[in-house]
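Protocol step 4 of 5: obtain the predicted structure for the target chain.
Materials: sequence only (see below). No template structures provided, no constraints applied. The aim of this step is simply to have a reference model before the mutagenesis design in step 5. Sequence pasted as it appears in the construct record:
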Amino acid sequence: MLTSHIRYLQSRLAALGHYAGPLDGQRGPLTDAAIRKVLPLLGQPLPPGWQGWTPRRQATAALQALARAEGLNPGPIDGWWGPQTDYTVTAMMTRAETGRLPDWRDIRPGTANPHGWPRESEVSAFYGPHGTPEGRRPPLVKVPSPWTFRIAWNLAQPRSFLWAHEKTAASLTRILARIHQHYGEARLRELRLDIFSGDYDPRLMRGSQTKWSMHAWGIAYDFDDTENRLNWGADRARLAHPEYRPFWEIWEAEGWVSLGRTRNYDWMHVQAARPD
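Step 4 output (structure tokens):
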């Protein structure tokens, strides 16, 4: 939690009539007392025992409750400052200052394409035939991962590799190495970037009767689908948060495309093909 967060909280407490001290971004007896008084008045359910939390944790809970009251989703009101709380409080402060929430169109995804990945309509000409449920497979390579993935539908099941089309395997190897170097093991797990939701899958695109998914060529990956639903926009998708920007920029430097960062849906997904 930053000084700016405390200053914002003090201003909100003052507006609610529970704080008359300076807006100095410093927690002191006046600020802490106002937080304890206002927390049960914000109309949000609080966990049992919150009165025994440290003043810092109560301050975090107050910001979480304020965000929840404004229709934002900071996660549970638990007093812990994690990535979702950080993003949501920042969004709440941005709306207070500018009158609007951060917009996904503020994102400027990279446009590099050093490997000449094709457009979706040209995928077959570039990569060859897609796989089929009957058994035909594109030329796939097992690319080892520098960190261990957990399977989204069974978090107890580890995965140490990703399937990749042979034309994308070298690029994927570099990407995984750079992501691992940037975040490190502990941070990858904290951000749920170790949760794997899909690679090669010989199926049609969701909602289509004729168009094959990019997964059918082994040129697409999904991550943490429970926190990044297909139709969720940047206001809900976890992978739209600022701490994931380096993750996407590493993919984009190799020419891969995030549908979230280009079209604001399917934030779980990245592919080695340019949308038509």
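Step 4 remarks: The helical segments are 3-15, 29-38, 55-69, 83-98, 123-127, 169-190, 245-253, 259-263. The radius of gyration is 22 Å.
Proceed to step 5.
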